[in-house]
Amino acid sequence: MTVKHRICVVVGDITRLDVDAIVNAANNSLLGGGGVDGAIHRAAGPELLAACRDLKGCETGDAKITRAYQLPAGHVIHTVGPVWHGGNADEPELLRSCYGRSLEIAKEYELRSIAFPCISTGIYGYPKQQACDVAVSTVIEWLAQNALPEAVTFCCFSEDDGQLYRARLG
Ligand code: ADP
Fold first, then answer.
1. Which residues contact 12 (CB under 8 A, 6 or more apart)?
2. Dihedral, CA atoms, 122, 125, 129, 133, nearest 10 degrees?
3. Distance from the CA of 1 to the center of ligand 1, in angstroms?
4. pTM score
5. pLDDT, tens digit (0-9, with 9 covering 90-100), for 15-39
């Protein structure tokens, strides 16, 4: 039984998505940064930063959840992707762990829908095709073994990223 009907690809701003959880590509401090993290904090309002302060940071490859405050989404799952150092510093395992831990937390909170940005492929420099392969394979494996979350959205910020994901999903 295929799980691909539980996956969709959209091109757009993840802060606009009305899903049970959006995933934030944060840094280890969880205290805000650029890229998608900056956009999420701007759109969620200052309460998100206050909630993140209580979390006392996050290890690379791990994830932590907060409410989403002014966002249309229900929760924000903050994960910390690896910085790309050439591929021999556990980058694929750490990136896989970001997707896996985010999905585990979504299941634990009984969330039905989750949206991921292209973690690590901005400031952290992870090659986009390789990151897409890790993201899609990890999500497909999860969905094959778990009923929750029911639906996963890959929220790409560029049409080029959208093409990569659509091609990978066939
Ligand atoms: P990282 O530090 O993990 O590389 P970035 O935020 O720099 O995180 O980039 C991760 C991905 O998020 C990139 O593909 C970037 O284009 C994308 N991105 C940036 N802003 C948004 C947004 N508002 N919605 C969705 N994706 C975004």
1. 155, 156, 157
2. -90
3. 32
4. 0.98
5. 999 999 999 999 999 998 999 999 9
